[in-house]
Amino acid sequence: MQGDSMKRMMCLVMVGCVLVAMRPAQGGPPKKGQADIYDTTADGEKQIADALIKAKRGNKRVLLQFGANWCVWCHRLHDLFENDSEVAKALLYHYELVLMDVDTVDGKEHNAGVNKRFGNPTQLGLPVLVVLDADGKQLVTQETGALEEGDHHDPAKVLAFLQKWKPKPRSADDVLASALEQAKKESKNAFVHFSAPWCSWCRRLDEYLNCSEIAEVLNQAFVPVKIDVDRMKGGKALEAKIRGSQSGGIPFFVILKPDGTKVADSKGTKGNVGFPVEPYEIAHFMKVVEQTAPKLTAEQRAVLEKGLQPQKK
Question: What's domain 172-306's superfamily in CATH?
Fold first, then answer.
């Protein structure tokens, strides 16, 4: 390490001025008024569990960034994650980022159990990165001194690290074929929605479909399947094939019989409803559900509709 990085060898914890042994220095305190990035009250095990659910669903990795709010290098890496367009895109497309607080207060390290579980990576200094696959298997531990250049992290080095450990893309055709096979076995239709990581409405639809109350109802009638048109091999081609000449952006959803026959989609009287929020969009969504999932009760359909309604404060 050179320059600022040499200071990582002597670390004075800013909270309570507690000297932490075996933890290289982090270059001094953050800038005055800099907002905290780590939740000092969060349960690290729950953070990981929640991230793994999303990673499994989206074919992503989980990236743990161990650090603390007093750590200037943690802030610098976080700033790079947010402000470098290529790095931010790699994170959005391929990772679920977890900011793991390991601050030491009154001699007790927050999330010490998580740190131990992954081989005490914090002994390499802060921040330190750990990559998990969607099953929670630890793939690599990366001390971040090697990613530095002078007084900052080198975007090219960070991007190369993220690209190296990203998951292999899935085939859209294979994902759909598997879903249709499951639909046939379970005598259901497939609820297929096309999306992309950059699409905020796609994320809204994904969150809705995976809300526990909504999923409990929908999964009784449908086999849900998400086709990522940007990340899956053949995703755009499959969307064009199923969608035909329709336009209107994403998210776009379609209901398929187990043999692949389309029985309904998100094209309403005014075009693609995407994630339904307007009354006419919600009405179209509920019409599709009623037509393609006749076994759902009125009470169950009410649960689906309520989940789309604006929540009163």
Answer: Glutaredoxin (3.40.30.10)
**Per-residue pLDDT reduced to its tens digit, 166-188:** 999 999 999 999 999 999 999 99
CATH 3.40.30.10 domain residues, the chain: 3-165, 172-306
Q: What is the tens place of the pLDDT at every residue in 81-127?
A: 999 999 999 999 999 999 999 999 889 999 999 999 999 999 999 99
DSSP codes, the chain: --GGGGGGGS-B-SSTTPBPTT----SSPPPTTPPP-S-TT--HHHHHHHHHHHHHHHT-EEEEEEE-TT-HHHHHHHHHHHH-HHHHHHHHHHEEEEEEE--EETTEETTHHHHHHTT-GGGG-SSEEEEE-TT--EEEEEEGGGGEETTEE-HHHHHHHHHHHSPPPPBHHHHHHHHHHHHHHHT-EEEEEEE-TT-HHHHHHHHHHHSHHHHHHHHHHEEEEEEETTTSBTHHHHHHHHHTT----S-EEEEE-TTS-EEEESEETTEE-SS--SHHHHHHHHHHHHHH-TTS-HHHHHHHHHTTSPPP-
Going by CATH, does the domain composed of 3-165 fall within 3.40.1170.60?
no
Output the pTM of the full model. Answer: 0.86
